[in-house]
Amino acid sequence: MKKRLAMTLTALALSVIMAVPAYAGTWKYVNDQWKYQRGANKFAYNEWVKDNGNWYYLDKDGYMKTGWQQINGIWYYMDQSGVMQNGWFKDNDKWYFLLPNGAMAVNTTIDGRQLGQDGVWVPAEGQVEPANTMDLNTPYLIQNMSEGFSTKGYNIITSGKNASGERWTNAIRLKGKGSYVKYDTKGEYKLLAGAVAPSSQFDSALMARITVYGDNDTVLYTSPDIHYNEKTIYFGADVSGQNTVRVEVSLVTDNFYDDPVILMDGLAVYK
Hints:
Elements: H1 2-17, E1 27-30, E2 33-39, E3 42-43, E4 47-51, E5 54-58, E6 67-71, E7 74-78, E8 87-91, E9 94-98, E10 108-110, E11 113-115, E12 121-122, E13 140-141, E14 149-152, E15 154-157, E16 160-161, E17 167-168, E18 171-175, E19 180-183, E20 191-198, E21 207-213, E22 219-222, E23 233-238, E24 245-253, E25 261-270
């Protein structure tokens, strides 16, 4: 009985300690800032950490970041508790859209609203301020769609490297100009989003891009030109009301010998 009581009191004490903050036990408050401890004297540095379903970023000194942060050339926003945000976001009277993975959307249209190179919404006449009506926490992976799914030059890689040396698994691999994935969305989705990068097999003599087409080959999104050493591109495109969506590879520079090899990670639609 005493042993059981001692165990209960120990568990209660641990629960109290872990309550500040709620995700503590691994979080440590050091020099008035938060660090994420993985083990004895081992902290996270320069990386994303997922805790209790939320994403946090730790800088080169291991401190949790808040506010706007540019990470590997991509802008993200973390609130005051360090949680990465997504969806429509207003800052200093300017509206931005943060993709499901947190990356700031640029040079695209979301919810019928045009976003510029700086990610800021450029209101058209009569448009009202946006609202977060999409479920960005429930992705429907294109590659998992069976009915209404068609492809060309497509396969799923179990393990492959992109040009930056990152190893991707369970990602789409498209080889050759004109290669594509296509899905009959039937007007059920609002957003298509994902990550695109050249494979490590992408030849230096080539330059490619991906284009998202809707009904009647309407262009919904065009990526920047993709070079052999291009960093990962995160993109989103408004697919509201579209019955079919096609993501296709084309060549900007062709040496008429090598095929472009493009990887797409987490390509999904959202309602």
